[in-house]
Amino acid sequence: MKESVIKVEKIKIEKAAVLKEKPSLDGIPFGKYFSDHMFLMDYDEGRGWHDPRVVPFANFSLSPAAVVFHYAQEIFEGMKAYRSPKGEILLFRPLENARRLNSSAARMCIPEVPEDIFIDGLKALVELDSGWVPSLPDTSLYIRPFIIATSAQLGVHASASYIFAIITGPVGSYYPEGLNPVRIMIEESDVRAVRGGTGYAKCGGNYAASMRAGIRAEKQGYSQVLWLDGVTRRNIEEVGSMNVMFKINGKIVTPALTGSVLPGITRKSCIDLLKEWGYEVEEREFSVDELTKAAEDGTLEEAWGTGTAAVVSPIGEVAFKDVKHVIGGGKIGGLTQRLYDTLTGIQWGKIEDKFGWTVKVC
Length: 362
Ligand SMILES: *Cc1c(COP(=O)(O)O)cnc(C)c1O
Fold this sequence. Notes:
Blueprint: E1 12-13, E2 37-44, E3 48-56, H1 67-71, E4 74-76, E5 79-83, E6 89-92, H2 94-107, H3 115-128, E7 140-149, E8 161-171, E9 182-186, H4 204-219, E10 224-228, E11 236-239, E12 243-248, E13 251-255, H5 265-276, E14 281-284, H6 288-296, E15 300-307, E16 311-320, E17 323-326, H7 334-347, E18 358-360
Parallel strand pairs: 1-3, 9-10, 9-16, 13-14
Antiparallel strand pairs: 2-3, 2-8, 4-7, 5-6, 5-7, 6-18, 7-8, 10-11, 12-13, 12-15, 15-16, 16-17
Pyridoxal-5'-phosphate binds next to helix 5 and strand 15.
């Protein structure tokens, strides 16, 4: 890998002269409002990462030939800051995001960001914009760290310069009407990722390739796509941008991390909680045949997706080749609800954090 900075430079802070008006969180659309500041750091070959800084939120100015625009050399992360009942601001397992960013970076030939700069930059930004961390129930500040390749060059080579940025924005409750199960459709033609590809990396290109199936599913009244593996087209991988878990005959089954599945931090946290509660968790190959058979013989008790945005999203129906399989009577299951309550309880600092997952910002 390319060199990164050896010493941790002090983060410079430039405050915005005028602060924005904060939007109402009632029915606020996801990802359209941004806080007053952003974190930036530059990378140049020969120099490494340099000039970590928090500055007013503003547009970038880039060459139209920047590598990111042509060859999608880009990676990102998704996380949240939560306000506890005591008014503290908490992050959830931020080091996991730093590590995953660097795992994505290695796959995409992007220089790794030192973990301490990731964490310090994140904290400096969230602390400065702490007024943007909302306090209404189930609301949070969404955080989007990302790296783009900025060299002006049309040749297909890894960029010699990069920007690492973190932007944030307030998000409302993901479930304003309560945890309603979603209907999902198994996608049979498009695939999201293949082994050896970029499925395990959080890179923009994976998302560009997944949009068509998402639009098709929506047109048919489904809210998410359930992805099958790209080789056999028999094994289940993920749901939309969430990992997926099934409760079958009292046991938990989730697709193994084979390289084409994104290693979710919510997934990992659910597995830890489930094991702590005494459940057997099988991370393995799980075929669509096994799923439909379990749905038909009544052993499929619950199904849910996991991810930072939704935390835990109950699945009430799966459609495959025009056959609809209702799960748990289309209602949220007890274990899905327990996972949701426990994880959100820990994230918002409302229940004891036995695992030491939360990190206080201020
Ligand atoms: C980010 C992401 C997830 C969920 O990861 P979390 O760390 O739990 O938020 C799952 N699948 C895909 C494709 C993702 O991009």
